[in-house]
Write a structure and sequence with these properties.
The structure is a homodimer of 351-residue chains. The first copy, chain A, has 351 residues and is an alpha+beta fold. The first copy, chain A, contains nine helices and 22 strands. Chain A is 25% helix and 28% strand. The interface between A and B is large, with 63 and 63 residues. Chains A, B: It holds the Pfam family tRNA_int_endo.
Amino acid sequence: MALEGRFDEAAGVVRVGDDARQRYHDSRGYGYPLEGNEIALAPVEAAHLLYRGDLEAVVDDSGERLDFRAFVAREPGRKFGVRFLVYADLRSRGFYLSPASEPWVADPPEEPADFAVFPRGKGPGDGEIEYALRVIGERTDVPAGELTAGVLAVVDEESEITYFEVSRRDPSGTTGATLPDGCEADLLADRVVVWEPPVDLYESAFYGQPLEGREYDKPTLQCSLLEAAYLAERGAIALEPTAVRERGREVEGERFDRRLAVYTTLRERGVVPKTGYKFGADFRTYADVESVENLGHSELLIRVHPDDYVFEPRDLALDVRLAHGVRKTMAFALVDEAGGVDWWSLERLTP
Amino acid sequence: MALEGRFDEAAGVVRVGDDARQRYHDSRGYGYPLEGNEIALAPVEAAHLLYRGDLEAVVDDSGERLDFRAFVAREPGRKFGVRFLVYADLRSRGFYLSPASEPWVADPPEEPADFAVFPRGKGPGDGEIEYALRVIGERTDVPAGELTAGVLAVVDEESEITYFEVSRRDPSGTTGATLPDGCEADLLADRVVVWEPPVDLYESAFYGQPLEGREYDKPTLQCSLLEAAYLAERGAIALEPTAVRERGREVEGERFDRRLAVYTTLRERGVVPKTGYKFGADFRTYADVESVENLGHSELLIRVHPDDYVFEPRDLALDVRLAHGVRKTMAFALVDEAGGVDWWSLERLTP
């Protein structure tokens, strides 16, 4: 027999009595207990019970009886539509989940989240949270400063949901190589040519890209302005670092200094950054380069952004989708005014 | 025996005599004939011959002898570095190619291009052009109004080259379906719910997305604001078209009207547009939908832009790479002030 709920609009919950506590809370993880034998349901929980036919109606403050359609049309609560869709999706995948706040959960996640999702087979009372889940529509901007570790559920305009795991992730590697000293080089409009460098500069340390097919036996290396700035600063090539950096700024504006900060940090961490152009990213990175001959695949794609950047979910979907398609992980390097870098990675998640 | 050239800096060509005409022009497609037995070489052609050791040096106006390195350091001519790299790459792939202007080619391509590339096995004199090729560095912006049919070669910062075939491409399809009349629907914050529509609205015409798992036998369809605006305008759902469009603009700003113009055009052409969110695009499209049960894969990913949009090559690389990875073609819909649409497609090309 389906029960009826009472919409306490001031408190923003739906109260249900009778045997709701045993049927919906104790055995199925909905809501939280009130005095007596009532339970309080969040609007998305009440909507889900209406949706499934477990609640017949919800009566509002004026006495109007609302069925699923009418309750949904009220859009009770912030982001109701997208939160309901995610709630329903995770329920259908066999998870228990609750609003990520007291009194639904005794120990809510530290980071702001919409839902606490429990490990499969466990419920709200077991005290273990699998995912701290945040829900957004695809048109919701995400300022970089508001990124939090956890799961991000993005609901697109046709109500499909994509889940992302957002984690802090500092890249590190084992690549190290001695740099040469004062190699001859020329600064061109948008690149640098290094003439007859020691063969290890490319073969072991993976700087630049050889110019192929010269009939003379004179290895020539082309470097990006970024690589060249790094090498010039360390005296490995005989160019004025200032001149190379100036050229870099001419070509790419303020992006250049940000990318150089990230490039430098990566090299210092033993990671080899190469251009990510073909993947639409700033860098692709190799953690453990011993020789170019035995090069594995790059593991990360990195996008460099200022720390006040605002992400659009659609671009996140694109970046992560591409990375996944080429078996790499998408990472973001957020650079502050002083050149400090904050690292995040985003991966597609199937809950 | 390697020859020497003379750099005529005013004319911007390198002149070579002796048997250059027979050795470099007649048999290998470099340069164009001058009076007597001299030929004139474009700077990239001269650089290539220096590179290969066929020219020993180029003497400039002041009498200085320039080897490959010194000639390159001069950066003779606009976009010299990137044009040289593409020239060398295509030569190494077995193509003959020339600057795309007279007198190198008798009949240059109509569209502005850097090089005329000839079909494999054919040369400048055979009168057949395989590709009208334009060369840019990865940091060069491409205004939408400057897109031309042909091949675009993008040289990244580490001198790798990606080739794109740019074509005009009007989508068309065979999907047609009768629309229902006045279905009940509710306008929510960022989507629309259609209550108990005829089953064909989704099953044959592929509008919306069903809400799954309802225990009642009441099919419920969620539509995007875009689909809903289109349906409302045609009386298929009982919502005020103006209200839906207003909501669309609240959610996505001016993009909404552009996307609606493209959505409408596609439906009119018998193509079914669905959201492209998961691919970071505006739409994925199906040309021939008979029923959702027998749905094939979508063929195109479409990005919608205003006609004054400026493309960044890095984003083009990303879009095209993703499309290729999911076996679709990337297309761009450029929308003018009046809602007219110009269609382009971009595909990766291996010359």
